[in-house]
Design a protein that fits this description.
Elements: E1 2-11, E2 14-24, E3 29-33, H1 40-47, E4 55-60, E5 63-64, H2 70-77, E6 80-83, H3 95-106, H4 111-124, H5 140-152, E7 158-162, H6 170-187, E8 190-194, H7 198-204, E9 207-212, E10 215-221, H8 222-225, H9 231-238
Parallel strand pairs: 3-8, 3-9, 6-7, 7-8
Antiparallel strand pairs: 1-2, 1-4, 4-5, 9-10
Length: about 250
């Protein structure tokens, strides 16, 4: 569904992505792990065209998105839904208005149809009847679920999750993990998840990739990846300070 080939990105003199190649399988969940500040979110933003590479090719459903501009890239982005780290809700809008926002911006649905779809989507993420609540009245986990509802309201083919469980307690983390799994199964979408949570990673992933020093150093089916012998990969999943991954 997504293929990155020899993607390189510099910010000033810092190489964040270094001739990186990665394939995201259609209809599966791929989790990308790696240390903080290692370029995972930058990689995610390349997939949706928010950042352009200095070199390389990015194919989404067979189309090279690198040269796309304006209306073309905006049309391409309709294939995507994205759940940001902090859910990125509009504080001045209630839950229903937040979830309905993409429909009002990009469709000509009648107001009755929008309200019906919002209600159906909120039920899907476990928040039925919450339309009138404000973001300030929601817990962190509820905000993430509203963000997910907004991400899927346009029936995307691809959902991107940028550290969806950051800042949540273990119980709510498990709720969100189950929601990612259930949403993928019910909608049949392709998912890309950025995560630091090793338990969650192995729970939700069909495929697992590790980003280190600007490259994908390990990739494979999640259930087989615990046997991966790469020392940096093993250091990361074991949470050890000693190893090839430096602390600074």
């Amino acid at each position: 569904m997504i293929r990155l080939s020899n993607v390189t990105k510099y910010f000033k003199d810092q190489c964040v992505l270094d001739s990186l190649s990665l394939q995201i399988q259609k209809g599966k969940t791929t989790v990308i792990i790696g240390k903080s500040g290692g370029g995972k979110s930058v990689l995610l933003k390349h997939m949706i065209g928010l950042i352009k590479p200095d070199e390389g090719e990015i194919l989404v459903d067979g189309m090279n998105i690198v040269p796309l501009e304006g209306k073309e890239i905006n049309e391409l982005r309709k294939k995507f839904g994205m759940l940001f780290q902090n859910a990125a809700l509009f504080d001045s809008m209630n839950v229903g208005e937040n979830v309905a926002f993409p429909l009002r911006e990009h469709t000509r649905l009648k107001e009755s149809e929008i309200k019906e779809k919002v209600a159906r989507t909120l039920k899907l993420v476990g928040l039925p009847g919450s339309q009138e609540k404000l973001p300030s009245q929601l817990s962190g986990g509820m905000r993430k679920r509203v963000g997910l509802a907004r991400a899927i309201i346009m029936d995307p083919e691809i959902i991107l999750y940028d550290e969806p469980t950051t800042g949540l307690d273990p119980i709510m983390t498990d709720v969100i993990d189950n929601l990612i799994i259930d949403t993928q199964k019910k909608l049949g979408v392709t998912c890309v998840v950025i995560s630091h949570d090793i338990d969650a990673t192995f729970k939700v992933a069909h495929n697992l990739a590790m980003l280190h020093d600007g490259k994908i150093i390990a990739f494979g089916e999640a259930r087989a990846m615990r046997e991966c012998k790469d020392p940096a990969f093993q250091q990361f999943i074991e949470g050890r300070a000693e190893g090839p991954i430096k602390l600074v």
